[in-house]
Write a structure and sequence with these properties.
The complex is a heterodimer of chains A (483) and B (95). By secondary structure, chain A is α/β, with parallel strands linked by helices. Chain A has a domain of 256 residues: Alpha-Beta Complex (Amidase signature (AS) enzymes), CATH 3.90.1300.10. Helix content of chain A is 37%, strand content 13%. In chain B, helix 1 crosses helix 2. The chains are: A alpha/beta (483), B mainly alpha (95).
Chain lengths: 483, 95
């Protein structure tokens, strides 16, 4: 059952080939067998079984939608009522959320079964899932390597088929980079497309939730449920949600694909480059036109991001102060000591680095030189994309400069870690939608292809990606150890 | 832009963030490295560029001034480290 996609499982449930209870139990068993991966922080077994039984009743009476009874897993950044919501941090290790994130509420409404909460980098800050308080997640293709991050638990769980699909969040590549490292499909929607309510904030002008799945069709199915305006999120965008599956089968002959020259320069591993080139050849065969484009300001994405994201994170994370919820230090002497020690003991090193950088960049005398300067360069980067989309329909390129690196390989060098997001970050700065789809292997490690679309052009991105999956089978491969 | 250990201590205090004395040097080195990376921004002239705060250049949406939330303070305060008489407790601030 676990090799089936969400679309296939939905058909199977309706054809009574298996029940949601059987399916849920099957995934719960697989999760137990794959504990070595450390993909889950919490497994919500009782709740999953209860939801599955309810789904079976609904399905028996001919009710329910495509996600009814489908076992999914949620990144532990989404607040889930009465279930621990840790965000990968000691700070929230004792936090039982009193409410549901809108994304969770929508999956509940759709009748999806929640198997549990997925491991992640602490507060989504990391590119390898090694900053988690709950320890690193392992990549099912090679358990000596990282799954990527910050949605490392999500990517690892879907790649090992421990859930039919998962949610992730992407602030600088946190859906696409782990999707690429683990050989799955991961979509970061346009900023504002999916509600951020109840999604623990890291960098509010960049954060966006999206689906992580085996196939593009499944990503379309999950996005359909996740997307939409939400009065509870003041930055969610009030635009109608199209039928994301309606355009999957459109012919892409004549599609204009831009390939960013600067992405194929120094820094890209030659095997990854060759894999992406081969994928572009598939698009040529499908009748697409490939055009080289230049985006000179993209090289500044990482510098800009490491001002804006820390600045926003330093403000957002000031709520973790040991007063109303979360970790509190023992025997505080006074209020300052309570703040300083609760935060000092409750937060990990990478989170601290970013809070410090952000605090510095926002402090008196440095604000213009760092924060305003970064916002100005951010506009230049976004204008590079605007110019490009005047000429092409989608942009394609690598997701990551290399395949999954070894556990511990980059933990001592924050900047080397940051550079692993060099092809994904610009998309967040501009707020555009982008997907990573499996495009082959370098050795035994998966390589992703990135497809970037214009604002709210998720349908076009999904269409281009789906057409590729119709002529390739990289997305159907799964690691032998977890077959 | 190289920071000193003193700078890092000052920033950490501004953020009310406890850093172990033995880790200060490592933070100083890492933060200086990050600021060095960030300094690449000065390579581009931005004199006539408007800062971009949000991808959609949105303004804050307003809603009617109506009560929409129910009072659930007891439920929320179950999460609190210390509560007394419906109030969050912290160490004494005023003697």
């Amino acid at each position: 059952m676990h090799t089936k996609t969400i679309a296939e499982l939905a058909k199977g449930l309706r054809a009574k080939e298996f029940s949601s209870l059987e399916l849920t139990q099957h995934y719960l068993d697989r999760i137990k067998q794959a504990e070595i991966l450390n993909s889950f922080v919490t497994v919500t077994e009782q709740q999953a079984i209860a939801t599955a039984k309810k789904a079976d009743e609904q399905l028996a009476s001919g009710e329910g939608g495509v996600l009814t009874g489908i076992p999914l897993a949620q990144k532990d950044i989404f607040c889930t009522q009465d279930v621990k919501t840790s965000c990968g941090s000691k700070m929230l290790d004792n936090f039982i959320s009193p409410y549901n994130a809108t994304v969770i509420e929508k999956f509940n409404q759709a009748g999806a079964v929640m198997l549990g909460k997925l491991n992640m980098d602490e507060f989504a800050m990391g590119s390898s899932n090694e900053t988690s308080f709950y320890g690193p997640v392992k990549n099912p293709w090679d358990t000596g390597t990282v799954p990527g991050g910050s949605s490392g638990g999500s990517a690892s769980a879907v790649a090992a088929r421990l859930a039919a699909g998962a949610t992730g969040t992407d602030t600088g590549g946190s859906i696409r980079q782990p999707a690429a490292f683990c050989g799955i499909t991961g979509l970061k929607p346009t900023y504002g497309r999916v509600s951020r309510y109840g999604m623990i904030a890291f960098a509010s002008s960049l954060d966006q939730a999206g689906p992580m799945t085996q196939t593009v069709e499944d990503a379309a199915i999950m996005l359909q449920t996740m997307a939409g305006f939400d009065v509870k999120d003041s930055t969610s965008v009030d635009l109608p949600v199209p039928d994301y599956r309606a355009e999957l089968n459109n012919n892409i002959s004549g599609l204009k694909i831009g390939v960013i020259k600067e992405f194929f320069a120094e820094g890209l591993d030659s095997e990854c480059a060759a894999t992406v080139e081969t994928a572009l050849d598939e698009y040529r065969k499908l009748g697409a036109e490939i055009k080289e484009i230049s985006m000179p300001n993209l090289k500044l994405s990482i510098p800009v991001y490491y001002v804006i994201a820390p600045a926003e994170c330093s403000a957002n994370l000031s709520r973790f102060d040991g007063v109303r919820f979360g970790y509190r230090c023992e025997n505080p002497e006074d209020l300052n000591d309570l703040y300083i020690r609760s935060r000092g003991e409750g937060l990990g090193a990478e989170v601290k680095r970013r809070i410090l950088i952000g605090t510095y960049a926002l402090s008196a005398g440095y604000y213009d030189a760092y924060y305003i300067k970064a916002q100005k360069v951010r506009r230049l980067i976004s204008e590079d994309f605007k110019k490009a989309f005047a000429e092409v329909d989608v942009i394609m390129g690598p997701v990551t400069p290399s395949t999954a690196f070894g556990l511990g390989e980059k933990t001592g060098d924050p900047i080397a870690m940051y550079l692993s997001d060099m092809y994904t970050i610009a998309v967040n700065l501009a707020g555009l939608p982008a997907i990573s789809v499996p495009a082959g292997f370098a050795g035994n490690k998966p390589v992703g292809l990135q497809i970037i679309g214009d604002y709210f052009a998720e349908s076009r991105v999904l269409n281009a990606a789906h057409q590729y999956q119709l002529v390739t089978d990289w997305h159907r491969r799964l690691p032998e150890q977890f077959a | 832009m190289a920071l000193t250990a003193e700078d890092v201590n000052k920033i950490a205090y501004l953020a009310r963030l406890g850093i172990d004395a033995k880790d200060i040097d490592a933070y100083t080195r890492d933060l200086s490295g990050i600021l060095g990376l960030v300094a690449q921004m000065s390579l581009v002239d931005t004199d006539d560029v408007q800062p971009m705060a949000h991808p959609m250049d949105q303004t804050q949406r307003l809603r009617a001034d109506e009560v929409t939330e129910q009072d659930q303070h007891e439920y929320f305060q179950k999460q609190a480290p210390q509560v007394e008489a419906d109030l969050y407790l912290v160490p004494k601030v005023i003697e």
